Amino acid sequence: MGSLLYLDRKLRRHARVELIRKEKAAERPAPKSLLRLGDNCWAIAHAERVAFIVDAKDYFEAFYRAALLAKRSIIVLAWDFNSQTRLHYDPVPKDGPPALVGDFLNYITKRRRGLHVHVLNWDYPMVFGADREFPPVYGLGGWTPGRRVHLRYDDTHPIGASQHQKVVVIDDALAFVGGIDLTVRRWDCRDHAPEEPRRTAYDKPYPPFHDTMIAVDGNAARQLSELARERWRLATGQRLKPPTEDSDPWPAELEPDVTGVEVGIARTMPPRGELPAVREVEKLYLDMIAAARRTIYIENQYFTAPRLAAALEKRLAEPDGPEVVLVLRLLSHGWLEEATMHVLRTRLIQRLQQADRHGRFRVYYPHVPGLAEGTCIDIHSKVMIIDDSVLRIGSSNLCNRSMAFDTECDLVVESRGQARVAAAIADFRERLLAEHLDTQPERVREETERAGSVNGAIAAFADQPRTLRQFDELPEWSETVLSVAAVADPEEPIALETLLSERHVRELVSSEQFSWGKLAGIVLALVALTALWRFTPLREVATAEAAIRWANAFGEQPWAPFALMAAYTPACLVLFPRPLITLAAVIAFGPWLGFFYSLTGICVSSAVTWKMGRHMRRDTVRRLAGPKLDRMIDVLKKHGLLAMTLLRLVPLAPFAVESIVAGAIRMKLWHVVVGTAIGLLPGTLTTTVFGDAIETAVSGSGQVNWWLVGGALALLAAGAWAVKRWFTRMEGRMQAHGETSRQPR
């Protein structure tokens, strides 16, 4: 079936080549290349074979077959990588290659001894964690990378920026670039059927998903391998050696769409140190829009970049300018996108509609009948096609982030007056439109020729159930709403130093000005809580006696000590107050057993978080620790057990962060555990005394020894003062030593 489709495409393309050749002969000489090294592209390289891939089903299968042919190297740059991604749904033979990508990579590296796989995944913030796989480097996930599968996380971007490139390079001989990650919630076929049983993630269905990739070989693949290796070096500090053995991993099933062409590579990179941002992606977009003569066809996930919208506005104002066809998704992902990116998109669409005095602008979304309410086809592709002359596929969205904030990579193919390449570009646009319009590419071509425009061709299919629909009336948003929404799509990286300096100024001001508003808020909150307890039925339920009964009932369970000790680890990770757990332990088990279980649980949690720090990158740990603890790292290294003991006595950062730092700087585990036990002994003992006093007072079983409570508090305060003085003195000595050592000799 695949061979017949390829033959059909070949025959149609041959006819198109003849038509375009005649048209070109009647036109002016072939235009020069748009690509300018160092300005709108990083490299221009030859590819003998180029394939345009639509949707993840075809891409995943192409990657699967190519990886089976790999000899030495597979490099993956990802916004997200998930080991549970299913690459195909064919039957898996016994002892054959697994279908899940994590097991598959382990399988091929185990059977080909010289093969190494390097996966660089973005070190994402937890706001993106809902659909993500927990990092297996912590040993808590279901998949463990094999010995020659190297998984690392890229956390070297500015605050709020991401590693957004989707690049796979195999043996420096084949490269895939585009919008599809090797992750879940991406797989779909061109049918985009409402009820597709294979379109699930973690046994839950998800809506149809549309995206594109481009495959290249030759020098273009080698250039992309250089890009991938440099990205790996910047993220990990390690240099990857290129393979020395020749290889041709291009799978036989992947039919090239065009051969023997030059490929441009454009990047976005945020500023790094003294190096300015790389904005080749944005410059190339602007140059492509300016060069269009008849048609600008765009598919994209977002449309919030004002400079690109302004360039389109300018072209729409021209009496004989090009038509603009913009295909977006109907809905946003969740309330946050709805309130930010969706608002910004609406504003730009309205601007273009107002500028469209000649009726050449249309914005569409794919409509598939039968989809569940509140869902739509997820247009995730990043495609721009100019006439039949320039085709661009990559990772960059039409938003500010992709212009100077995130790392991006796009590939460009130009016809440069060659009819065969122009035919391939036109054929790809017709394939995309045919998928959206539920028809065949030749029908799209016929309607385009009949109507004289792509928008006219789309209009011919408007009455079909599955088609491209125009957006209805768009809501009006105030300038205030637009200003707030713009925070989600910054035009440049956030300067950490600026934020810190501004924060320092705010802290100085707030420390010198007494906040009566905050005090009033606290008083009102206390009054409200008191009234809630005093004048509602809660008074009869949430009593101190009831709390003690619940704690005692818990303490009678055989599993209770283990549950309580285990509770300290998640508590320290989410910053839940440890003293509350200790108070509960004292009431549930009595002062001595409660004290023992509490201190044991605290020590176990210090060991677990120390182990986490051992597996974290040190620059990540430094940013996590913050400036206070960062200045204490040298003291911790030099004084070990003593420094950890005193740091636990007077914490300068959250408990888990201190342990993670200790693991990252390779402090001995027994130093951490013993230092934790000694350092937290006074605080735990004080909490124990308090807990016992509270139970005594509430139950009326005796008199509270307030002298003991006061003595415990005084001892803790004196210890805190002494430790702060010690740390200050040691830091001063080490700074003085550093200044002396830097004097010329």
Which descriptors apply to this entry?
two-stranded antiparallel sheet, 745 residues, 25 helices, 14% strand, alpha+beta, 16-stranded mixed beta sheet
Describe this structure in words.
It is a single chain. The chain has 745 residues and is an alpha+beta fold. Helices cover 50% and strands 14% of the residues. The protein has a 16-stranded mixed beta sheet that branches. Strands 7-8 form a two-stranded antiparallel sheet. A hairpin with an 8-residue loop joins strand 11 and strand 12. The N terminus and C terminus are likely disordered.
Element layout with pairings:
Blueprint (H helix, E strand, L loop, with lengths): L1 H25 L16 E12 L1 H13 L4 E6 L22 H11 L4 E7 L26 E6 L12 E4 L3 E5 L21 E2 L2 E2 L3 E2 L1 E6 H19 L21 E12 L8 E2 H12 L3 E5 L6 H12 L5 E5 L6 H6 L1 H15 L5 E7 L10 E2 L3 E4 L3 E5 L5 H5 L3 E7 L4 H19 L3 H11 L2 H6 L7 E4 L8 H7 L10 H17 L3 H19 L3 H4 L2 H12 L4 H14 L4 H12 L1 H24 L3 H13 L2 H17 L5 H10 L4 H31 L6 H36 L4
Parallel strand pairs: 2-3, 3-4, 9-16, 13-14, 14-15
Antiparallel strand pairs: 1-10, 1-11, 2-5, 5-6, 6-10, 7-8, 11-12, 11-19, 13-17, 15-20, 17-18, 18-19
Helix pairs in contact: 1-10, 5-6, 6-8, 10-11, 17-19, 18-20, 19-20, 19-24, 20-23, 20-24, 21-23, 22-23, 22-24, 22-25, 24-25
Put the structure in a nutshell:
By secondary structure, the chain is an alpha+beta fold. Helix content is 50%, strand content 14%. The protein is globular, with a radius of gyration of 31 Å.
